[in-house]
Task: structure prediction
Amino acid sequence: GKGTYFNYLHALKGDMVVEVDTLDEVVGDFNSGLMRATDVCLDELNFKYLKKEGERIKHFITAATIPISVKYKDTVWIKNKINFYLASNDPSVKLTSLSDRRDVYFTVNDKHANNNKLFDPVREIIEAPAGSKKAHQLRERMGKLLHRNISKFNPRDRFLNDEHDYQKIASLTGIDKLIFEMANVGQYPTPMERGFKTILYPMHGGWISSETFKQILNHHPDFNKKYKVDPISQAAIKQTLLTHYGFEEKRKRDIRGFNAPTMEVLRDKVLERCNFTSYFKYEEVLKDLLEEYASLDDGSDI
Result:
């Protein structure tokens, strides 16, 4: 579990590993605990709080130097050596921008959960008293890590995986979230007001009015809550659709609207916009399988 991992870092590096309960201990008025830190562990911080403070912590991830503020003393600037580890049981860990280049995400592998036989030797080494044989084994491990040859490491060749994509999806809002959902289900919605309910009808490409998008994002309270947006203008919708998603502006009977791209084009645009690895690959595999079965033509009820 995450606690064991943090304890392992503590055992390796001592007080150079700092666990914090709030981001104020990192970006607040006083952060002297970071003076010698190489690793900062954040466990189960509030997701909304991370969204609010996300911009402030970016500086501590990428800056060459960081400010250290001690009470009643002048602020000093030190070389930034910090790696941040955020552990959470929340599936939406933190706000992740579409152009994110800072974060790497992993999910826990439960294959060996509660396997004491496997993990007891690790725990014994972590908790070994100073000067013991097991503590010496830990120091040997640290020595190997310190002398590991990393000359071929390229910091721009980051590890990207599906989990990184999922965090971006969980962070989508407004028109980007709506377009992603269209691409994911493979159809365009057309809202029709009936009393207080908005009914969606499938529309496969072709012309769609700009008022449609505005209704979905602004007019219905459920949608407004779902897409987490303040009232959005048609001009903002237009700019996003034309610039990022392959829509073309077109009037129809003096009504403003767009020619919507095919779903294949829209999905390519979503992948490009979100910098996804290939989110829709599972549906493509399914499509290929269905075509293969259909080609058998053996009279079976597919």
User: Anything to note?
Assistant: The chain has twelve helices and ten strands. The mean pLDDT is 76. Residues 184 and 280 are 7 Å apart (CA to CA).
